[in-house]
């Protein structure tokens, strides 16, 4: 049995942060969740909620007291801008006696991740998940309203990962030895096409769902109409049109780190079937 530890989770209201919180609780650890507005945050019973902002690190010292591990994100503030405060955050962490740090990769080089990698005063692990299974929730409205998914590049491949498995890898790295200096590419257990994903959701909800392929021009128009900024549109074109090998290759990291197989998209679809039925 791993000794009970207290872990500070930043970005705790996010897609991954919530899973880190859940996995730590399930493993018997104490969790302190950092949020900018505690009144708006909702967490499972037993989670200690503290207010703080990664863009103002000097106010984080009380949140770090009595903590052995720290989960970090690379963006902060209301605008989710890249954090420049990594060195100060890590200085405070070392002063508080924090031994282990995980950082969720932000999709490319960031000042905070650079600071973590350069710090030899803590045991750090970089978490590099590929496409989240949760991204499929973007299709819910179209499936509910018209029974269809409209996407470009329908033959693209993805080793998409259950967000709970990202949380599980983080929880192990934060509470167990042997993960210092590791860069973990976290994937699911299978490589899927868009057709695979749509048919899996259809099976979970018990209805037919059509997959309609958009041209690149139609996709760009759709994304712009949805208000996506141009840099995001460009990123999606590159990621979907020419998915890098790392995003379509099963890594095996989840099983290696946690000792259990990565969760499948079928499991994820069953867990979220109500969203695709238009139910709360």
From TrEMBL:
Domain annotation NAD(P)-binding: ranges: 11-105
Pfam families reported for this sequence: NAD_binding_10 (PF13460)
InterPro entries assigned: Ergot_Alk_Oxidoreductase, NAD(P)-bd_dom, NAD(P)-bd_dom_sf
Stored SUPFAM superfamilies: NAD(P)-binding Rossmann-fold domains
Protein name: Uncharacterized protein YbjT (DUF2867 family)
Organism: Streptomyces paradoxus
Top-rank taxon: Bacteria
PANTHER family: PRESTALK A DIFFERENTIATION PROTEIN A, PTHR43162
